[in-house]
Amino acid sequence: xxxxxxxxxxxxxxxxxxxxxxxxxxxxxxxxxxxxxxxxxxxxxxxxxxxxxxxxxxxxxxxxxxxxxxxxxxxxxxxxxxxxxxxxxxxxxxxxxxxxxxxxxxxxxxxxxxxxxxxxxxxxxxxxxxxxxxxxxxxxx
Length: 141
Ligand code: HEC
Ligand code: HEC
Ligand code: HEC
Ligand code: HEC
What we know:
Blueprint: H1 2-5, H2 24-27, E1 36-37, H3 39-42, H4 67-70, E2 100-101
Antiparallel strand pairs: 1-2
Bound molecules: heme C (4 copies).
One heme C is lined by residues 66, 69-70, 73, 75, 78-79, 81-82, 84-85, 90, 92, 94-96, 105, 107, 111-113.
């Protein structure tokens, strides 16, 4: 049913194939949550970052940041500004939101870009600090 809803003519069952499309059955709202969506989210590449089942990382992530991010973003190719880009151990999610943002660069509303003396803990998953805008809710059962 959910396959037809997303205009997919091809109807594999979850028993034989688990692709990211299945996630849309319940999480379709993730595709339109932000004015600017991050490419792999918009492209429904959910399983690049998430695992379909349980995970040791919060938000069912397959691994942690920066590892999930450097799958696609070669660290050496990131802009040298901010300098934190040069620190391979930095948690990308301190400053970026994985799914999207209000603007390009997907920055958090309160990025820790300037002084590194600021607290670096990021909000718990689901506790989004960009939620100041009127985000659509729902889409999950
Ligand atoms: C049958 C419905 C359903 C499907 C299909 C589904 N989910 Fe979920 N998912 C849920 C529900 C319900 C929750 C809990 C709702 C909440 O936390 O608000 C949830 C929560 C999550 C969370 C948050 C977990 C956390 O710890 O914060 C992630 C991430 C997630 N799902 C990813 C996925 C991905 C990736 C897929 C595809 C492989 C998927 N889901 C498929 C129903 C579904
Ligand atoms: C680039 C990696 C990445 C991709 C691709 C991605 N996610 Fe996420 N997702 C995350 C991260 C990281 C979080 C934890 C929230 C945070 O820190 O921004 C998250 C959080 C979530 C949550 C928890 C709810 C919330 O608002 O925090 C759900 C549900 C979810 N993702 C579903 C999906 C679905 C469905 C897709 C595919 C359409 C997807 N994700 C694609 C990285 C990703
Ligand atoms: C201290 C905050 C901070 C951290 C940590 C951080 N970024 Fe950034 N990032 C930024 C800012 C600010 C920009 C915008 C730079 C500009 O506008 O020139 C940016 C821009 C980007 C861009 C677009 C420009 C480019 O360089 O291609 C990508 C991609 C990116 N970051 C990925 C990452 C990844 C991946 C990580 C983790 C390895 C990461 N960032 C860690 C703050 C950060
Ligand atoms: C599956 C590959 C993939 C993964 C994994 C991935 N990205 Fe991206 N990212 C892209 C692509 C493709 C683009 C360019 C399209 C776009 O702007 O969204 C991009 C663009 C960006 C940009 C710049 C967006 C802009 O507005 O110019 C930032 C910042 C970024 N990613 C951060 C991250 C962070 C942080 C993570 C880890 C949570 C991550 N990415 C994981 C593929 C990926």
